[in-house]
What we know:
The chain is built from four helices and 35 strands.
Amino acid sequence: MWALLLGILTMLLFGLPLIPAVLEWRRRLDVRPLAIDSEHTLDVAAVAADFRAMVGRGGARQGLRGRLYSANALRPLVQVTGTFMPTAAEALIGTCARTIVTSGSLVLPDGYTFSRDIYGRRGISTGRRNRMQVLLSEGEILVRSDSEVQRWAHARTVHVEPRCRLLGPLSALYAMRLEEDCEFTSVSAAEIGFGGRHLAAPPDMDATAPPGGDWAHEVLNPPSEPSDGRWLVTHDMTFPAGTLYRGDLIVQGDLWIGSGARVIGSVKANGRIWLGPRVRIDGALIAGGAISIARECAIAGPVAAEREIEVGARSVIGAANKRTTVVAPVLRVRVGTVVYGAACAPEKGRVLADVATP
């Protein structure tokens, strides 16, 4: 009798931890997808749509699909025509704690902190040394020098002057330009230019241009027949300058690609990758370490590294008809470079001067 009771108690003791698993198996509690709040994604356009809808409703009703902005989210609110005029209290402390909305263009004063969202339908021109949370416009946003955007910004086009800090995602439907010494974490647009317009990449540097021209030189043949069009190298490799390889290249070590070389395919290395000047890659460029790209290179596909990426001046990544992404924890881009798509640097991104410029 005692032996039977001891056996039952032992089975209960070891079986209790399994009850939640049995209930989950029987009831299937996880069949529905998890809801994702747009506020916790990098889809700036979706968050901007919520804000735009709330502005259109005047903050009077609830029920937005993203529920990011409640009925009172925009209050206190000030309707502005043209230049923003602070109150006496705001002028004294240099801080505006009101949501600013205008149906036209908006000009902000220098040296102010704006702790609420800002909407300028036709355009927004910030002041110098501003600190802002959110900027949204259907036209152009001009972020003046030494300013900071702490959450996000979205517009048709965006121009960011030197020495600005973009702590949250910044997006544009069409063109975006970040000038020298700007810091960023995530920027996306059809075309992202780094540096002044006169420093842009040469117009003939198209990463998706047809073969030929000064890019194609001596054909490099691997020592053994590649498998499925992929050349696997099990050690460090130096890719000769001025040579051409057709296919994907995978290196289980560090990779150096000489100047003027071209790979009609993708390139991946477990270690670091160094690209010489005017290298062209028709696919992706992926590294397990860091990537260093010299000036005037053209890469058609995504560029990703687990450590950091430095892009030389007047390079092109992606194309107008083929958007792509540059991503690494640390990203340094020299002026004159153009990226079609997005550039992400969760730890730190920065626009640097051209080292060849006197």
